[in-house]
Amino acid sequence: MRNILIFSILFTFFSVSFSAMASTAKDTLNHYAKMGKELNNVKSSPSEKDSFFFKSKKEYLINELGDTVFFRFTPPESDTIIVPSVDTTEIKKTSKFMNFIESTSRFFAQDTSKHRKVSFLAIPEISYSESEGIGLGGTGRIYINNYNRLPNGNKPRQSFIDASFNFTFKGSFSLAIRPELYFKQDKLLIRGHFGVGHYPSSFWGIGPDTTDDMEESYNKNNFITQIFIYWHFLHHSYVGVGAHYYDNGISDINPDGQLSKGDITGSTGGKISGLSAHYMYDTRDYQFVPLKGVYIQADAYFNAKVFGSSENFTRYVFDIRYYWSLGKNSVLALNWYSQISFGEVPFQDMQGVSNGVHTRGYSTKRYIDRNLMSTQIEYRHYFGRFGVACFASCGGVGPDVIKALKMDKASFGGGFRIKPFKGQRMYFRADIGINIKGQTQFYLGLDELF
Question: Which of 69, 244, 292, 361 could form a disulfide with 435 if both were Cys (CB 3.0 to 4.6 A apart)?
């Protein structure tokens, strides 16, 4: 399910465009309502009872329900106010059309500029591959809003839950839920990752020099559980501990392929289980679409047979991001990401080029090894309800850090951003990545990748 159909991009674009149109129409109706209030001294005749601007002194309702504003013009019981007659045929048609637009908009997103406890953004996904046929799914984010200020006067961090689901009509599926929840006035943070799936995958071998003709297919069956607990430590810093358990199953391997030989760690499946330690430093002005600040994440994962793991190995992850503000609506985002591993690392736990965030433009895990080094730079500019981005990146893998630092896998690309509601810094994202071989990958998602 690697080739995303252009239809999904257009589908999302038009749905969000409907949302913007709905907001504009809503402002127009509010303007008409204001005009009606200014006509209080105008007398009406019974023949003009059905006028669009017909207004009662006792009742003029603007009811809010969900994201829709309903306008009801009620005939007065007495002392009516008269305004000139207006042909309401076209207005009624517009009202029905705007109700359709509002309904379409709410299907994909909610306007979180209003004080709702829970808000939602979603994007549909349609995919196609020769082996799996048509696939359907979606990605969504639930925002849990907290409008109470912290004791220092700052806004609290945004709690959210990411969820994604995909399936094909040939039996493949994947489900993933990733919560990030803040408690105790941001002093406590809980992160998690829970997933299950059965889907086809590709393996090209291990190392930076594998060739395209080495590709072999297999079916991946996995179950993922991760839980991390962080405590606030000093200014902008958190420290945490965690536990994880992965059950990686493999089926339908190529009998003549590398995995069938059994000499690659993880080629017969296995479990990865252990404990972890974490540090996070975060000064970003906004988690999802930052315009300034610094983010540093350092993780250490300790996997051992005593915890139920099939192999003993450790993995260290470093993620450093810097956001250089270039004005009110522009930013240059810089990112360094690396993974260093020791021990018998199953190939399923090796990070690679690409992982969907770094070195976009390569197939998922096209190159994998025990160590990964990558860097990327991305320019973003936002205007009105839209935004554009362009990026360049390079990365490398290797059996040791020195070889991984060669970072000879380069890519570049760009994309568009669409803001469904003007009251909140949230965006639908569509990017295209191109690697140095000229191969392309399409990416659809919510907000910025890093």
Answer: 361
